[in-house]
């Protein structure tokens, strides 16, 4: 089968023929239809410091996908050939304290699909049945392909109650855009999104942001004044991983404000801990999705009319992966999809 492989320990990806994956009694074999390109894939392609530390070559990349089941192992129940499915890309041990308590998203031995084991940038992918999500209701294939990052957005945005709250989102990348759509759908009073890309800020407006602010020529405090906010933001969703973004967010939170932080910083940086303490601000780290509560929430949000179409800005056949990755790396658009049927 064809697959996008990190064949060598240097920048680049290679479209090559590899053996189809084999499945065990508890596994499912899936024909891949669409995949989404993630920031993680960009790191591995560029072979930066994180990739050099965490990835062993050769490796089939990809963890955002939708496909169709072609075979289920003999011990698999409730999943059958022909089912349209996605997959939870965090494979957990099932034995640690958190796994046994039903908190699988907190497993300390998590292995990432397309990072720690071969992934979904291929014509077929194999997964344990316990990691397979069956789409019981019709979902657009492109949207179904990005349930993984959509889940990051939902997990982050719904960490705290949003109804009637003023929400600040720093970072208008694809996950920040989806979080803005969720916050608007969930009843936030004001949704403010910041970034330095005018193209991405325009996408933020399309998904329902009340104010999209370019912080290269304006300040969050200006946005507060424009909206008539006198005490700061109630909820902060930090999606950029940028030190200045978190510092500005903290400086613009109300007393008792709550911050959910998904953006992953490249290195350590100082923050104003005195402000956090005296303003009694809560900061919660977010990683991945709750298994599978977040997946239920995603399906219900879409069923309830949440529209993610504006977030998807690039569609390519898998043979055009170089152009697709360049698009995703540009920092100007939303989500980029690879079609594995053409």
TrEMBL record:
The highest taxon in the source lineage is Bacteria
Q: Which SUPFAM superfamilies match?
A: GroES-like, NAD(P)-binding Rossmann-fold domains
Q: Which GO terms describe its molecular function?
A: L-threonine 3-dehydrogenase activity; zinc ion binding
Query: What pathway annotation does it carry?
Result: Amino-acid degradation; L-threonine degradation via oxydo-reductase pathway; glycine from L-threonine: step 1/2; Metabolic intermediate biosynthesis; 2-deoxystreptamine biosynthesis; 2-deoxystreptamine from D-glucose 6-phosphate: step 3/4
Location of the active site: 40, 43
Q: Where in the cell is it found?
A: Cytoplasm
Cellular component GO terms held in the UniProt record: cytoplasm
Record: residues binding Zn(2+) 2: 93, 96, 99, 107
Instruction: Write down the Gene3D superfamilies for this protein, in alphabetical order.
Output: Medium-chain alcohol dehydrogenases, catalytic domain (3.90.180.10), NAD(P)-binding Rossmann-like Domain (3.40.50.720)
The UniProt record lists the Alcohol dehydrogenase-like N-terminal domain at 24-133
Residues annotated to bind Zn(2+) 1: 38, 63-64
Q: Binding residues for NAD(+), per the UniProt record?
A: 175, 195, 200, 262-264, 286-287
GO terms in the biological process aspect are: L-threonine catabolic process to glycine
This chain belongs to the protein called L-threonine 3-dehydrogenase
Q: What class of enzyme is it?
A: oxidoreductase
Entry cofactors: Zn(2+)
Residue span, Alcohol dehydrogenase-like C-terminal domain: 174-300
Q: PANTHER family this protein is in?
A: L-THREONINE 3-DEHYDROGENASE (PTHR43401)
Which keywords label this protein?
Cytoplasm, Metal-binding, NAD, Oxidoreductase, Zinc
- Which residues of this protein are annotated with the site description Important for catalytic activity for the proton relay mechanism but does not participate directly in the coordination of zinc atom? 148
């Amino acid at each position: 089968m064809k697959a996008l492989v990190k064949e060598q320990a240097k920048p680049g990806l290679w479209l090559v023929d590899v053996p189809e994956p084999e499945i065990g009694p508890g596994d499912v074999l899936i024909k891949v239809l669409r995949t989404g390109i993630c920031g993680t894939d960009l790191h591995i392609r560029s072979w930066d410091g994180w990739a050099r530390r965490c990835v062993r070559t050769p490796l089939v990349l990809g963890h955002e996908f939708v496909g169709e089941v072609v075979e289920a192992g003999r011990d698999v129940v409730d999943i059958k050939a022909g089912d349209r499915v996605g997959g939870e890309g965090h494979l957990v041990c099932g034995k640690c304290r958190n796994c046994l308590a039903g908190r699988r998203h907190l497993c300390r031995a998590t292995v990432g699909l397309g990072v720690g084991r071969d992934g979904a940038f291929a014509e077929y992918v194999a997964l344990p049945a316990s990691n397979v999500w069956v789409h019981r209701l019709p979902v657009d294939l492109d949207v179904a392909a990005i349930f993984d990052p959509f889940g990051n957005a939902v997990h982050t945005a719904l960490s705290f109650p949003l109804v009637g709250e003023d929400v600040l989102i720093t970072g208008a990348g694809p996950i920040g855009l989806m979080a803005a759509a969720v916050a608007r759908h969930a009843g936030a009073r004001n949704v403010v999104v910041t970034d330095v890309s005018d193209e991405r800020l325009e996408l933020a407006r399309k998904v329902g942001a009340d104010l999209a602010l370019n912080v290269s020529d304006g300040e969050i405090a200006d946005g507060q004044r424009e909206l008539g906010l006198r005490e700061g933001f109630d909820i902060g969703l930090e999606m950029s991983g940028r030190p200045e973004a978190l510092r500005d967010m903290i400086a613009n939170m109300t007393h008792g404000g709550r911050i959910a932080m998904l953006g992953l910083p490249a290195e350590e940086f100082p923050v104003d801990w005195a402000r956090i303490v005296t303003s009694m601000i809560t900061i919660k780290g977010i990683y991945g999705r709750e298994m599978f509560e977040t997946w239920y929430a995603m399906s219900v949000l879409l069923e309830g009319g949440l529209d993610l179409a504006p977030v998807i800005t690039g569609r390519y056949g898998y043979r055009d992966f170089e152009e697709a990755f360049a698009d995703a790396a540009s920092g100007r658009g939303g989500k980029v999809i690879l079609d594995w049927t053409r």
